[in-house]
Automatic annotation (TrEMBL):
Keywords: FAD, Flavoprotein, Oxidoreductase. Signal peptide: none annotated. InterPro entries: ALO_C, FAD-bd_PCMH, FAD-bd_PCMH-like_sf, FAD-bd_PCMH_sub1, FAD-bd_PCMH_sub2, FAD_lactone_oxidase-like, Oxid_FAD_bind_N, Vanillyl_alc_oxidase_C-sub2. One of its GO terms (cellular component) is membrane. GO terms for molecular function: D-arabinono-1,4-lactone oxidase activity; FAD binding. It comes from the Bacteria. Pfam families: ALO, FAD_binding_4. Residues 22-192 form the FAD-binding PCMH-type domain. PROSITE patterns: FAD_PCMH. The keyword Nucleus does not apply. This is FAD-binding protein.
Length: 422
């Protein structure tokens, strides 16, 4: 019998805060398990005490998806590789493993993630469960790489999930930790590849006018709209050192293309604004956590119209706002709560400083995005309500039904999630 009392798995609650410092709390108990058996024991003891449970990885999400008055399960020490299947190109890892550690390990095994975002500091399970993504009109979000998982259910039992579980599995893949505590996840990888990346600045008219051509001709086309000259500095984007076809210094786009190259092919000769290395090296950027952000995906075919409205809002109502607007196309999937569920999407990430006035700007942007039935990235701030979710997600009611079946007592809910999914 594992000890869960004082001096055992359940320790007096410790202060926790997320990457941005916006979310912080002290739970009644903090637990740092290192085995499946310990996680099972923690859930059973929490149930005996009548306490809710929430887990964390790297704390990289903006909204209040972790805070709980009950038991906080910190997976930071539960971060090992469980197994590798080189034939299937699959790797099974523990929930606390960082995306950066996973991609470095995959490289050693001759593999890569099919796609990833521009931050790799997250715990892999947090990235998957919140629908994190990269960019590319043929590339779906990272949740679709889940080939299987083992969870501890609300009654403290182990359960394996796989595509054979049908609709339950589709709902689970972006479930924000509401179906159980994930103790391992199996990731579908692809053969290792390098990336040839090009970066340059151009006028908005060039970017939007040739958008679909660039989306079609490149594995990934990705751009940041820079409202002011100083905007590039905030995300550490290259400024004057890259080639530029821009005719002005503000209201321009910083554009990037990423194209895969087999690892057995030689590196090309690089010019200004060009990079070449393994996918695990090229995808990530460095970001300073000095911003407040929302990110919503609009239907792919309505992106240009929506972007024009957002741009107009900045230019007329917030002309001094500095932060870039990041724009990425993502392929549709069949995950219930993915921002790309059953439709191709175009994500717009809108940010401002960690100041009070930023909320008003994000609210104004949200009002525009809502007119386009935009869906949230669950790891970013959002202004969702149950009524709105029912309108924009075809499987919202089905997700809630499955959540109740998996956790009828709401053990894995907190105030933020209960309001939306109880």
């Amino acid at each position: 019998m594992l000890s869960v009392d004082k001096g055992g798995l359940l320790q007096p609650g410790k202060l926790w805060w997320n990457w941005f410092g916006e979310q912080y709390f002290v739970p009644r108990y903090t637990a740092r398990p290192t085995s499946e058996e310990e996680v099972c024991a923690i859930v059973r003891e929490a149930r005996r005490l009548g306490l809710p449970i929430r887990a964390s990885g790297a704390g990289h999400s903006n909204p209040a998806i972790v805070p709980t008055p009950g038991v906080h399960v910190d997976f930071d020490d539960f971060n090992q590789v469980v197994s590798v299947d080189r034939e299937k190109l699959q790797v099974t890892v523990r929930p606390g493993m960082r995306v950066s550690a996973l991609t470095a390990f995959l490289r050693e095994q001759g593999m890569s993630l099919n796609n990833q975002g521009d931050i790799d500091r997250q715990a892999i399970i947090g990235a998957l469960m919140t629908g994190t993504h990269g960019a590319g009109k043929t590339l779906p979000c990272m949740s679709t790489a889940i080939a299987g998982a083992r969870i501890v259910t609300a009654d403290g039992e182990l359960r394996d999930l796989s595509p054979a579980d049908g609709e339950l599995f589709k709902a689970f893949r972006t479930s924000i930790g509401m179906f159980g505590l994930v103790v391992s996840v199996t990731i579908q990888a692809v053969p290792s590849y390098n990336i040839y990346k090009r970066s340059w600045n151009a006028d908005v008219e060039d970017c939007i006018g040739n958008l679909h051509k660039r989306l079609d001709e490149n594995r990934t086309f990705w751009f940041f709209w820079l409202p002011l000259k100083k905007s590039a500095e905030l995300y550490e984007l290259p400024g004057g050192v890259v080639p530029s076809t821009a005719t002005r210094e503000h209201d321009i786009c910083h554009m990037r293309t990423y194209n895969a190259v087999p690892v057995d092919q030689p590196a090309p000769e690089l010019g200004p604004g060009e990079e070449f290395d393994h996918s695990s090296i090229i995808y990530p950027n460095d970001y300073i956590p000095n911003f407040r952000e929302i990110e919503y995906a609009v239907p792919f075919g309505r992106f240009e119209e929506c972007f024009a409205e957002v741009r107009h809002m900045f230019q007329t109502k917030y002309p001094d706002a500095l932060y870039p607007v990041e724009c990425r196309a993502v392929k549709a999937d069949d995950t219930y709560l993915s921002a790309y569920a059953e439709r191709d999407g175009y994500a717009l990430s809108i940010s401002g400083p960690l100041e009070e006035w930023t909320w008003g700007m994000l609210r104004d942007a949200d009002a525009i995005l809502d007119r386009y039935d935009a869906r949230p990235h669950w790891g970013k701030h959002h202004f969702m309500t149950p009524e709105r979710l029912e309108r924009i997600y075809p499987k919202y009611d089905a997700f809630k039904r499955l959540r109740r079946e998996m956790d009828p007592d709401g053990v894995f809910l907190n105030d933020h999630l209960r309001m939306l999914f109880a």
